[in-house]
């Protein structure tokens, strides 16, 4: 009687334990990589998954996009400027079987690849490119990292450079460079304005030289402008023919 009772207890315990070890429920964004006696089977999920107790082992894999923060990296640019760069990468698992079988820890492996690639790509760029051409550098980083993680079933969708820190002395040098650039542009604009004004004056002088009456009209207009300003100054044009005898030109001739 005791033996029968013990057997019943064992059977009840098995009925209670076996469902917990053989039944799994996977969410919509999860997949299960099932190993049966060490051999991988086709990935399962989502929904209800039945396992063979003591034979099957399942590893859950999330297919959602993961935000991977890349720690601060010390980078020396192509023009020998030290910089501290932080970035962020977005990736997701597209093949659960390869993500478990091909690499031990795909999250850690992706992080290490992202760090080394960041130092390598940015080390080939100059400081001006690092500050002004981030979109191009982001695309290069994404392509290189994704190419290396593709065998693991990991798809890197985006890589963004968040912040670039440079030494204070280099910041002051960049500020001086920007100020000098603004001054250069101002001088060029001023010179272009003087050049255009000279062109217009030469054209006006050519037109006036063809018709002397135009000069008289210009003189009258100038007198009107002076009189309109309540000025007592009077400008009177004196023909050179009247003063030429006093300049000694006749004696020289």
Provide a quick synopsis of the model:
This protein is an alpha+beta fold.
Task: Explain the overall architecture.
The protein has 253 residues and is of the alpha+beta class. 53% of the residues lie in helices and 23% in strands. The strands form three sheets. Strands 3-2-5 form a three-stranded antiparallel sheet. A three-stranded antiparallel sheet has the order 6-7-8, covered by helices on one side. The protein has a two-stranded antiparallel sheet with strand order 1-4. Helix 3 crosses helix 5. The model has no long low-confidence stretch (mean pLDDT 82). InterPro entries: Band-7_stomatin-like (IPR043202), Band_7 (IPR001107), Band_7/SPFH_dom_sf (IPR036013), Stomatin_HflK_fam (IPR001972). This is Slipin family protein. Pfam families: Band_7 (PF01145).
Keywords:
253 residues, alpha+beta, three-stranded antiparallel beta sheet, 9 helices, 8 strands, rod-shaped, Band_7/SPFH_dom_sf, Band-7_stomatin-like, Slipin family protein, Band_7
Question: What is the element layout, followed by pairings?
Answer:
Layout: H1 2-22, E1 23-26, E2 30-36, E3 39-40, E4 47-50, E5 56-62, E6 66-76, E7 82-93, H2 96-101, H3 106-123, H4 127-132, H5 134-149, E8 154-165, H6 168-210, H7 212-228, H8 240-243, H9 249-252
Antiparallel strand pairs: 1-4, 2-3, 2-5, 6-7, 7-8
Q: Give the total of beta strands.
A: 8
* Terminal-residue CA separation: 156 Å
Side-by-side strand order of the widest sheet: 3-2-5
Helix/strand order: HEEEEEEEHHHHEHHHH
Spatial shape: rod-shaped
Q: Give the radius of gyration.
A: 42 Å
Helix content: 40-55%
Number of helical segments with 4 or more residues? 9
Reported for the largest beta sheet, the result is: 3 strands, antiparallel
Mean pLDDT: 82
Secondary-structure-based class equals: alpha+beta
Low-pLDDT segments, ≥5 res: none
The proportion of strand residues reads 15-25%
